[in-house]
Amino acid sequence: MLVLSRKKNESIMIGDHIEVKILSVDGDQVKLGIVAPKSVTVHRSEVFEAIQAQNKEALSVAPSFLEQFKKK
């Protein structure tokens, strides 16, 4: 893990096209702004984990359900 220190209004670059800006610091809360191409998805980690869990659940469809679906 790379650890960097930044102050308000400073930023870091990830690759050539993603910039993470420090918008404000208030106590233990930091507000970030992320500038990235529209082709790059950006999610909070808890949202990303929920999406991953839903995707795994969708893949674990019972074979009997698929057979019923084919009959219709």
Verbal overview:
This is Translational regulator CsrA. It holds the Pfam family CsrA. Keywords: Bacterial flagellum biogenesis, Cytoplasm, Repressor, RNA-binding, Translation regulation. It is found in: Cytoplasm. Belongs to the CsrA/RsmA family. With 72 residues, the protein is of the alpha+beta class. The chain has one domain (11-71). 33% of the residues lie in helices and 28% in strands. It has 2 helices and 3 strands. It has a 3-stranded antiparallel β-sheet, with no helix packed on it. Strand 2 (18-26) and strand 3 (29-35) form a beta hairpin. The protein is elongated, with a radius of gyration of 20 Å. The protein starts with 10 loop residues before the first strand and ends with a helix.
Q: Topology of this protein?
A:
Blueprint: E1 11-14, E2 18-26, E3 29-35, H1 45-59, H2 63-71
Antiparallel strand pairs: 1-2, 2-3
